[in-house]
Design a protein that fits this description.
By secondary structure, the protein is mainly alpha-helical. The chain contains 4 helices and 2 strands.
Length: 140
């Protein structure tokens, strides 16, 4: 009976697709499985050495798992890139907004100073546009 188990194990260990046949199981587990089956079948068939072994072809499952890992990796990379791009644009927007606020404050301060100088003058000062509408007049 041991000869039969060893022959089957040797035959299977020479196959290129052995790992696909046994899936995530170890080779030791496969050999132990053969020994258990041989002992069971020896008892069932009244001492006649018979060895049955059942393999599930897990090639499709293994390929699907590899494909899922690849897709998951692409999704993580894509998500990371999107987050990075959003972060860069947020920083750029923040800097631009801060610069605009600073420029606006400078312009408001200049306009207040300008208006103060014009209002301090006792002469009438005004500005009209092309349609002769008043744009501003001092308080004189």
């Amino acid at each position: 009976m041991n000869f039969l188990i060893e022959a089957v194990n040797e035959n299977l260990s020479q196959r290129d697709d052995l790992m696909q046949l046994i899936g995530n199981n170890s080779i030791k587990k496969m050999k132990d499985n053969h020994e258990n089956h041989a002992g069971f079948m020896y008892n069932i068939f009244n001492g006649t050495p018979v060895l049955f072994s059942i393999f599930n072809d897990v090639t499709a499952r293994v390929k699907a798992e590899a494909n899922n890992r690849r897709i998951r990796t692409y999704l993580y990379i894509s998500f990371g890139l999107i987050v990075l791009i959003l972060l860069v644009f947020s920083v750029l927007f923040y800097r631009k907004n801060r610069k605009l606020k600073s420029t606006k404050n400078e312009l408001e301060n200049f306009n207040k100073l300008y208006q103060t100088f014009i209002d301090a003058n006792d002469n009438l000062i005004y500005l009209k546009d092309n349609k002769m509408n008043y744009l501003f007049v001092n308080e004189a």
